[in-house]
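If you are new to this repository, start here. Below is one unmodified record pulled from the training split, so you can see the exact layout before writing a loader.
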Amino acid sequence: MTVTPGKIVVRDEVEPVRWAVEQGRFLLRGTDTGGLFSLMEFTTPPGGGPPLHLHDHEDETFYVTSGLYEFQLGDTVHTAGPGTVLYGPRGTGHGFRNISDEPGTMLCYVTPGGAETMFEELAELQGGDVKPAWEDVVALAARHHISYPKIRPVRTKPSVTRFR
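And here is the target side for that same chain:
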């Protein structure tokens, strides 16, 4: 991948994009950073969050800013509250859900950049009156090198991981 230098970007108003399990604001897009990274803010309703999945080409770092999440990273489940940082390298199965009674928020730093396009396409796919078929969601994810492992999520007592 050839990386071109990014440009100076200042944003104070970013409209959210909504999809089935949460919504996101794309604070810095891959096109803003010359493809180096994307920075997104996710807001997850109670009980919401993506199923266990893995990325072939992206690493993700999550920083929880509010709420309480249960994260699965590989074979381990972590409880993550405000101030928790979690890193999911490419090729590692991961998923999360908001386990609090209020919406939770987190920042997500994705390298390399460009992951926001998948979320925009997902929002478009899910934007109609009819819920899309799971096969259509899986096909969209596959176009972005994301897959859903055929393993069940780990359901063990979560470990508490807090970095302050």
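Two things worth knowing about this chain: The longest helix spans residues 116-125. Confidence is low (pLDDT under 50) at residues 156-164.
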